[in-house]
Each structure stands twice: as structure tokens, then as C-alpha cells.
Amino acid sequence: MEEPCPWRIVDDCGGAFTMGVIGGGVFQAIKGFHNAPVGIQHRLRSSINTVRIHAPQIGGSFAVWGFLFSTVDYGLVQLRGREDPWNSITSGAVTGAVLAARSGPLAMVGSAMMGGILLALVEGVSILLTRFTSRQFRNVPPLLEDPSQLSPKEDTPDTDFPSCQQYH
After folding, report:
1. Are residues 24 and 67 in the same domain?
2. Which residue of 74, 77, 79, 163 is surrounded by the most CB atoms within 10 Å?
3. How many domains are there within the chain?
4. Same domain (yes/no): 44, 112
5. Same domain, 39 and 63
6. Does 69 share its domain with 99?
7. Which domain holds residue 88?
8. Are 47 and 36 in contact (CB under 8 A)?
9. How far apart are CA 101 and CA 98, in angstroms?
10. Per the record, which residues fall in region Disordered (predicted)?
11. Domain boundary among 60, 82, 104
12. SS3 category, 143
């Protein structure tokens, strides 16, 4: 684990808020520009006002999600004693369910499934990228310094490199 509990949760909450404000700001700027009356001044003013009003709300929603997700994730790490993708997937499902609790049990189940599936996709892509990039940095087998250490059928007169068959 990288950081102690409270700082990790606060860091995740702040990161989620920042992502929500930036992403929501871009989206709301486009939306405000598009929905404004004709004229560049009207469109720019509408765009700025829409961002000013809605971006902090979107950032706050993301911050709540990040806080809840991080808290559940840390709780699962402490409960299970290990940090693996199942913690994130379960945290996504629990977070989705809790945030939909006011809408009833059916909405909770749907949101839990969406949260779990979304985090499973994120974790799956992360694992695939890690495996793909780790292949680029594999350790190359060390070359033998003395060619006499090679067996006679692997020794080739024109190269000092051992046969690839030796390492398979």
C-alpha cells in the first residue's frame, strides 16, 4: 500500500474532484456555447456562466464518488489483508449501490452491477496493459563469456552468441 488510510482517501477524493471539474467544465463549456443565442459574445458569456454554475457541482459529485470508493477499497484491503483487483471491483459495486440507495433496491442493484462491471473493465484493461508493457522490458539471457562453455552442437563458428534453443 502506498499511503496511510486518511491521506490516500483525501488524495483520491481530491483527484476525483479535479477530474470532475475539468471534464465537466469542458463539457459544460461546449453545452453552454451550443445552447446560447446567436452571436459570439452571447455564446462566450453563456459558455462561461454554464461552466461557473455546473462544473463545481459535477466536481462535487465526482468527489463524493471518489471518497466513497476509496473508503470502501481501503476497508476491503484491511478486511481481506491483500490488495488486488477484486477490492476495486467490489468497491465499484458497493459505491454504485450506496449512491443509488435513495432510488430504491432495484436502482441499487442496477448501479451496483454497473459499478462492478465498469471497474472490472478498468482493472482488466490495466492488467492487459501491464502484461503488454512488461514484455517490452524482459531481461535478456546473459551471454556466455567463454565459447568453450557451449556444448559442441550449439557452438557455431561465425558467432559468439548461444543458440536460442538453450533458453526455451
Report:
1. yes
2. 74
3. 2
4. no
5. yes
6. no
7. 84-128
8. yes
9. 5
10. 143-168
11. 82
12. coil
CA 28 to CA 51: how far, in whole Å? 5
92 within domain boundaries: yes
DSSP 4-34: -HHHHHHHHHHHHHHHHHHHHHHHHHHHHHH
159 closest CA partner among 150, 142, 168, 167: 150
Q: Each residue of 119-138: pLDDT tens digit? A: 999 999 999 998 888 877 77
Cell numbers given for 32: 453552454
Contact 58, 28 (CB under 8 A): yes
CA distance 95 to 32: 31
Cell numbers standing for residue 94:
458497493
Cell of 7: 491521506
Shared domain check, 1 and 72:
yes
Nearest to 97 by CA among 108, 88, 113, 110: 108
- Of 55 and 139, the one with more pLDDT: 55
- As a whole-number percent, the residues of the chain with pLDDT over 70 amount to 80
